[in-house]
């Protein structure tokens, strides 16, 4: 009994036929001239000559009636025709020679043209070779008459070489030969035809219908293009007439030959499907042999399945059919009583919000040659496995397109494009276990196994009434899915829910597992426990009708496993990319960098590939987020057009280069060590504060005027960065837990960035600072009411220490006494030089607490809090330092004379002006001492320098009757002021 797929294929062939009243006469089959053709019929020389001409020069063979084309196998026809001609010529010669002998015809008569003297054995041998399947190439057969007979002179008779008696004996022998030939031909061409056993009635009906009716030319052309001749079967090639002979042929003979070539081509094309079918059967046999090839461990995968299960499994890839688990419904009832699950097992009904209606069918997609080949292979495989089936058109059907996506092995996955249909299907949110879920179950030195399901979605049957919504056309044939297709929006949820029942049963036995669609990770502490876990999992899945994928499953416990494209190592407790995936990412980024111009779609596709690597690349988000921001900006500018052109920025190229240089060596630790300390931070509109938990360590600082303009999310993130720089600038290889009271800051730290450019840039700065010191940061949320200490520090800011001298005034001072090396007692917001020493903790300062640093051998600039001037002068003496000091002209202070006694160069008075002093964090605030007079002094702790300068000073002049002390202040005016030091006069002129 022929199977249904064969009947369907023949139905397609018979569908080519059309009943037509106007039958083309050129296509009417004619009888072949039999070698037993009656010589007494109307035969003349012209008939023989025309026939010989066609046999000798044609690509095929011609019948006597040139209006008809014999529809038989050309090579056999030529052989039969040649033998018929030979026999007729022999009989004709016999009649002529008998008449000539009896009438004593003169021997000077001219030679009989092309009279055959004997039967050419080679032609008959070839005939019987055909009967014995030993035929030669058709090109050789075409040349038998012309070469074998024309080149051998002995085959022609001559009146000079024979006598009447010899001729009579020869004729008698020829008659006997003719009888033998006719008997042989009669035996070869028998009118009786033996019949084999009957085939399927439907199949026989299709065959009879197809053979009786004329085929549709368009359909016939499509079918002949569908099946190509195998490259290694050269005998199917249609022979052609030699070009030189072709040019000598008449138009009539050329037409006949072309028709015969067309017929031969159709016959060879018709043989192709049968050859391909036989080849597929042979390939299946070879594949079944490959399934049992012994692996490197000397145990085949199927043997492993047998070993771990202890019994023969029921389901293998070679006996898979679509919707197979429905055949095991009774066993599912043993596993669960959930009616919803059981209904799915019997046949899943699509969950529509609205019954879909289709007005217009989608335009079919165009595939290239390679894709077309793979799609055809998949379609054939789907039909064999009953995943799809050919159907007839209905009014309420829904037709979609199929498209392909490349797989890892270089082949293509066929996907049904259900984008439009999915709009009418109810969307139900569900939770599925992810790779991150699987990682949480891993412990040091644990053992792994993995069970992968083959054709997972196709195992779930779709209700017959809903299959009409899962239809597509392929090469003008309508098919429908009988099971869950790739592309259905509910497929992941349905399959996840089904497997949840299965793996819940296994978990109840104490097995740790994480299913993810068709794959699963099995984890156990010991080798034996893992082996038991694998065995129970395989047994249960097979018992319920699932097919275990023998190649992708890991059935022997291991401590290094590949799961969902990542290498998990329980020995090192690291996750890495597979070597192949890492190479692909590096090549992908390199190619993108080299392109001068790309589309946003290409850019987005690369970003998608990078995002997928995150579980195996620790700092992946840091070099993805900025690319995503670029993509978002460009899409907004081009109104969502993914095909718009773009050029990579320098920042984009820098991020992509990081992937090229680091992806192969990157990894992601499965867990982090315990934190070395806990840091609490907070920020206010003016400043920030931080404290180390369970210690007395704390710090705080101002925010600059520009920083204060930012959103509080930015300020909270900034506070974390400043706190890390303050407490960890000299530490490495530590883990810090940071508690913040802002969820945005928390997410940006833990996710290494986000979609807001300013926050992402700050986050990248934070993480790059940590990476350089091998510091890992984990952020946690702490409500504001509990973050009391850091909040207090962020608000208790002394603004009086943050005054800054007008920058124009500083530039004049720097030109007089500079260039200065370092700014003493400055802060992040008021320093005048790139290098500065702070008084209070400051993460950006080169040193904290300027008094703790040596001041000698550097040119210092100092505008300190006024209360520190006395202590500063002591430090100057101690370090023998040189300094430019800005201080108020307060002669009532005890430190003022000390300044005068350390001056080593001309000093200047700074005239009052608007904004002479300002606070960078609050520029509008004015200094509360309105009449403050400032001066700039060049001082030194080196006594010899002081004495050398004082020697240059003029002696103090006294007016008659007035006696002034040697150390005193004279008159202070707008044009300067005078001082007296050891009887010397010091004049401070205005700074200009």
Automatic annotation (TrEMBL):
Residues 135-149 have a biased composition (Polar residues). Residues 98-113 have a biased composition (Low complexity). GO terms for biological process: DNA metabolic process. Residues 386-568 form the Reverse transcriptase domain. Residues 98-118, 135-176 are annotated as: Disordered. Pfam families: RVT_1 (PF00078). GO terms for molecular function: nucleic acid binding. Residues 150-169 have a biased composition (Acidic residues). Gene3D superfamilies: 3.30.70.270, HIV Type 1 Reverse Transcriptase, subunit A, domain 1, Ribonuclease H-like superfamily/Ribonuclease H. This is Reverse transcriptase domain-containing protein. It comes from Mytilus galloprovincialis.
